[in-house]
Amino acid sequence: MCQMNVLEAKTNFSKLLMLLENKEEEEVIICKNNKPIARMTLIPQVDRKKAFGIAAGKLKYPISINDGDDEIAQMFFGSEDI
Question: End-to-end CA distance of the chain, in Å?
Fold first, then answer.
């Protein structure tokens, strides 16, 4: 755990982010007049493979963007014998 005053934290903000990102520090305590007022921590990364929302897992996407082209062409042009 690292602790520093507001002015020092403002001056070294990028370095503090790097310390957290590289997991050299677990948290940084920001103080005002030597009294802790804030805690800075790294936000855990979310597994991006998970789908969110009420339709999660219910929608089916085509494997290729061209899937269904014949069906759409028939809707527009009628018979395929044009």
Answer: 74
For residues 42 and 19, the answer to whether their CB atoms sit within 8 Å is no
Q: What per-residue confidence (pLDDT) applies to 54?
A: 72
As a whole number of angstroms, the distance between CA 16 and CA 10 comes to 9
Per 3-state DSSP, the chain is made up of helix, strand and coil in percentages (nearest 5) of 30, 20, 50
Question: Along the 82 residues of the chain, how does pLDDT read in single tens digits?
Answer: 889 999 999 999 999 999 999 999 999 999 999 999 999 999 887 666 665 677 777 777 767 766 667 777 788 777 655 4
Element spanning 20, H or E: helix 13-21
Rounded distance between C-alpha atoms, residue 50 and residue 65, angstroms: 22
Distance of CA 7 to the CA centre of its chain: 30
